[in-house]
Write a structure and sequence with these properties.
Elements (H helix, E strand, L loop, with lengths): L2 H13 L22 E2 L1 H11 L4 E4 L3 H7 L1 E2 L4 E2 L3 E3 L5 E2 L4 E2 L1 E3 L3 H12 L7 E4 L6 H10 L5 E4 L6 E2 L9 E3 L9 E2 L14
Parallel strand pairs: 1-10, 2-4, 2-9, 9-10
Antiparallel strand pairs: 3-13, 5-8, 6-7, 11-12
Length: 197
């Protein structure tokens, strides 16, 4: 990110008020969670900056996604909630490879908390590709007794355009489209293998 753009972003963030959460009706009912705490990408970024090391931002996408699509600089860890299946089974309905639940998701989040000297009461922000997997992750954390879990409901890439020449492309909202800091350069300390129980 050019220095002038980064400086302008910092000024914008410094002058912006941190919202507690986006309105519930901004989120599709099927993507809502027991917490009802939703953030836009900018709100998630502001909350992470304001909370510092006491607030965790977890990317729940697969390892392949972060390798080829990139990851937000502010993310503390990549802990996939779902993983590609070993047999690369295909889903006709969603026209993509099938995934399976990561049975170690909650334990990996707990390990991250332990490594940071935090507990289940610290704020956690979850982010995925478009917002469809974060409710799954939030429900698992809710069942495990975590108290404050936000979902960045637009995802890293955002939603697909429904019409026009860019129909089907992820150009609507999301972390990348909001021009928040991200990179293809992955930091080893943030990768999933560090948190496997």
């Amino acid at each position: 990110m050019p220095a002038l753009t980064a400086f302008a972003l910092l000024l914008l963030l410094a002058s912006a008020q941190v919202s507690p959460a986006a309105p519930v009706d901004a989120v599709e009912p099927k993507w809502r969670t027991p917490y009802d705490l939703y953030l836009t990408p900018l709100e998630a970024y502001q909350k992470k900056l304001a909370g510092g090391e006491r607030t965790l931002l977890i990317d729940v996408r697969t390892r392949a996604e972060i390798k080829y699509i990139g990851m937000a600089d502010a993310v503390d860890a990549n802990i996939p909630v779902r993983m590609l299946r070993d047999d690369y089974a295909w889903s006709e309905k969603s026209a993509t490879y099938r995934t399976r639940e990561n049975p170690d998701f909650v334990a990996a989040v707990e390990r991250l908390l332990d490594l940071r000297g935090l507990d289940r009461n610290n704020p956690i922000i979850l982010m995925c590709q478009s917002g469809s997997r974060v409710p799954i992750a939030a429900r698992l954390l809710h069942q495990a007794g975590f108290s404050e879990v936000y979902t960045q409901y637009q995802g890293f890439e955002g939603f697909k355009a429904k019409q026009g020449p860019d129909r089907g492309k992820r150009i609507v909202n999301g972390w990348k489209n909001a021009r928040l800091p991200w990179s293809y350069q992955l930091e080893p300390g943030k990768m999933y293998f560090n948190f496997v129980p």
